[in-house]
Amino acid sequence: MTHVVGDWGFLNRLNKIIQTKSGHCVMLAIDHGYFGNIPGQLKQFSCLEPLYEYADALMLTRGMLRSCVPTNIDKPIILRVSAGASMLKELSNEEINVTINEALRLNVSALTCSIFVGGEYEKQSLLNLSKLVNWGQEYGIPTLAVTAVGRDMARDARYLGMASRMAAELGATMVKTYYCEDFEQVTGIAPVPVVIAGGQKIPEKDALQMSRNAIDKGAVGVDMGRNIFQSDSPIGMIQAVRAIVHENVTVEEAFEIYKNGPKGLL
User: Fold this and answer.
1) Which residues in the chain belong to E strands, given as ranges?
2) What would you measure as the largest C-alpha separation in the chain, in angstroms?
3) In sequence order, which residues have a C-beta less than 8 Å from that of residue 70 and are 6 or more positions away?
4) What is the Cα–Cα distance from 73 to 148, expressed in whole angstroms?
5) How far apart are CA 89 and CA 70, in angstroms?
6) Where are the chain's structural domains?
7) Chain-wide mean pLDDT for the chain?
8) Using 50, 70 and 90 to split pLDDT, how confident is the model at 32?
């Protein structure tokens, strides 16, 4: 794991997310609905609970946290604190919509927002991240920067590497970005831990291969949502991803774990 400097509280929160034994993490993303992209084919959101056991951290909004997560859960929370537009509008037009006092009341382990490098409101999104970094330094809370993609920007190593490096330069503790060809160039230029986004639903074996490739090329973990929710075996899928990230299994071994998982919607 990339060395991160911080006080006890800061490092304690970070070590709950990135497991100290393996140096890796599996995040479960449940923050899609804040901009209008509903995550998967769930019958009801209470069906999410069986997945929590296999995640190292949950990434979600405060509304989802209060509505869908039991208060006795022993999992770190990565709280999305940005909003402002739906997928029908310019997504980069975001502001911070949660106060630091609210985040502290919710006992979160990290704060997160998106940066839209190349987006119409790029500057605002970078200032949003800077605000979270400042809060994090004052209150001992790590910050995860999510590198969203501008409409005219390709998901390639040059762009994603630049966006990830910008996030690190602004003080982000961790970066979440997309996997791409030559991904080692992205992890190589970002001096902070990098996790990959699962992105849109793809075949299960392809998602596992992407996870394997990302870890092999320097990512510390995977933050996956739709490729778990929309799988025909969500529990099997998150178990398979976890085996790749923490147990260093092959794609074929992970695929067998997925196939042996319980079928059907949660």
Assistant:
1) 25-30, 57-60, 77-80, 82-83, 95-96, 110-117, 143-149, 174-177, 194-197, 221-224
2) 47
3) 49
4) 29
5) 33
6) 8-259
7) 90
8) low
pLDDT average, residue stretch 147-154: 68
Token couple for 219 = 């990512």
Closest C-alpha to 202, from 178, 185, 170: 178
Task: Kindly name the residue from 21, 176, 259, 263 that is annotated as catalytic.
Answer: 176
**176 annotated active-site:** yes
The total number of residues shown for the chain amounts to 266
Task: Give the pLDDT of residue 146.
Answer: 96
The superfamily in CATH containing domain 8-259 is Aldolase class I (3.20.20.70)
Q: Is the entire prediction scored with pTM above 0.85?
A: yes
- The DSSP secondary structure of 95-134, one letter per residue, reads EE-S-HHHHHHTT-SEEEEEEEETSTTHHHHHHHHHHHHH
Contact 124, 176 (CB under 8 A): no
Paired tokens of 50: 């069986």
One-character DSSP codes across 238-255: HHHHHHHHHH---HHHHH
189-243 pLDDT per residue, tens: 999 999 999 988 999 999 999 999 999 999 999 999 989 988 999 999 999 999 9
